[in-house]
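Trying the structure run again after the queue cleared.
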Amino acid sequence: MKEASKSSTRKTKIQLFQYLLVGGIATAVDIGMFSFFAQALSIDYRIAIVLGFSCGVVVNFSLCNWVVFAGKRKPWWVVFVRHYLASLSVLIINEVAMISLIEIFNFQNLILAKIMSSGVAFILNFAIKKNYVYNDKRYKESITNSSKALLLERRSRR
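Done. Tokens:
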């Protein structure tokens, strides 16, 4: 029992390290696109947050499927929808943190505020992805339960 627990802890540590790398790349895309939208195109920073974040989520999803949680590719669109929905909570945290820094605390540097708000949301993002989006147990339970329901329905027809 202890061996399985050690293996699970080690796997989580490896995934966290991989996610740190993947998250760093996705965050760089997010911040870069935010900067482009807010500064180069003069789009309001609240809208630029959503646009940059959406670009980062697509990169994060792609790299998570390829590197961090490889081999857990259920139908890709199901994973993508779960990934994006889970990311919405992180977007809300990002948005609230940015607006708080800028509107309440009169923070002037948009890029630094974006970096700070992204850092706040990182751990929550990993926990949600690991425990919701790529959780095999939940996915298998839902498949098993729907399969059982289908089997019972077929038996009742006979």
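The chain has a mean pLDDT of 79. Worth checking whether this holds up in the mutant runs.
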